[in-house]
Amino acid sequence: MWKALHAIIWLAAIAGPLAEVEARVSRRQVRHRSPPHLGLDKYMSYEDIMQYLEQLSRVYSDRLELHDVGRTFEKRELRIAKISNGIEPSRKKVIFMDAALHAREWTTPITALYVIHQLVVESRENAYLLANTDWIILPLANPDGYEYSRNTNYWWRNTRTPNTNNCYGTNLNRNFGLGWGEGLPIFRDPCNENYAGTGPFSEVEARVVRDIMHKLVDEKVGFMYLSLHTANRSIFYPWVNEPSPIHNNHEHEEIAQYAAQKILWSTGTIIKPSQGYKYGGRIGGTSVDYAFYMGFPLSFVFEMSGMGKNGVEYRFYPPEQYIRPLVQESWIGIEAMVKKAIEKYPSSRPLHIPVNHKDAVNAAPSNRGFFGNIYEKFTSIFD
Ligand SMILES: *[C@@H]1O[C@H](CO)[C@@H](O)[C@H](O)[C@H]1NC(C)=O
């Protein structure tokens, strides 16, 4: 009896302080690598996003490099994050992701930051995503439009460059140089939110994305392009501007199906995979077609869900309490797509590079479909 009591007192005396020491040690380890807080509970401004990236890169300078690769019409930075596992500097294939080409799709930049967080901070858990791949992420591809959408007109979708007729802005996902201007007459209307610009790559934001694509393809490391949009709940792949399927359509389909399954199992959200063209007909000048044409063997648009946990469709602006679940759901899809893509492209498999990939660089606008091919359908399928 006394012995047992003694033992208990002894245990309490020793175990208490020991546990405290352990807690202190692990707190110190955390403090050693204390990342900035990514709340996922509010929409972030351009400034918030830039600041978050800077703080994160200071803490994880061995894994995360920032580069300012262009300046917008209103002089905001176009900032990319280059992420590696910080171990081998060897030439790895590269995943290129962008977000918010369309200004009003507010959950996409914060999702891109969450992907960066997963790769950089949760790097142990996600080591396999960086073992043979590096990532380049442009989390805010249209900062001028994004700020205008936040502060002035939440419905805003385009850049903020002035057009004729006192109208503003170009739709970046019509501004790429493959099939530029093809599809619908409104793509030539400078006052329409589908305006494709004065010419292919008239916008610095599109040129920056193009130049990253070219560089990666030229270095033969361009592996997968992924553009984040909302809120169609689908995964699109090329062609958007042609009815014919691409040569590895089945591969795209399989990857998209796999991600859709994962999301369905974890949240119940239905994501539909499809060739882009099948949804709404011909749309020229998209980034997803351009990336594939230039030589990325895999190219996707992920149209994330804009539906709240309460089942209400909020499209572009879910109330802030729904940001976190939507971002986390999207991460499940992105991780699944990349996991499957990596499986399909082991290091031994060469990345297919078309021979004439430079043909489209400054592809002249063609008029095919401009007058003859008028769709009666709702036209903003490519949110
Ligand atoms: C996605 O786009 C297609 C084609 O325009 C449309 O039929 C469908 O309703 C859209 N889905 C959502 C969730 O917006």
TrEMBL record:
Signal peptide (UniProt feature, chain positions): 1-23
Active site, UniProt feature: E303 (proton donor/acceptor)
PANTHER family xrefs: FI02848P-RELATED, PROTEASE FAMILY M14 CARBOXYPEPTIDASE A,B
Entry-linked Pfam families: Peptidase_M14 (PF00246)
InterPro entries per the UniProt record, alphabetical: Peptidase_M14
Protein name: Carboxypeptidase B1
GO BP annotation list: proteolysis
Cofactor(s), by name: Zn(2+)
Gene Ontology cellular component list: extracellular space
Domain of life, per lineage: Eukaryota
Family: Belongs to the peptidase M14 family.
Keyword Cell inner membrane appears in the UniProt entry: no
A molecular function (GO) term: metallocarboxypeptidase activity
Species classification: Eukaryota, Metazoa, Ecdysozoa, Arthropoda, Hexapoda
PROSITE patterns, per the entry: PEPTIDASE_M14
Keyword Metal-binding included in the entry's annotation: yes
Keywords, ordered alphabetically: Carboxypeptidase, Hydrolase, Metal-binding, Metalloprotease, Protease, Signal, Zinc
Peptidase M14 domain: residues covered: 42-341
Gene name per UniProt: LOC108078067
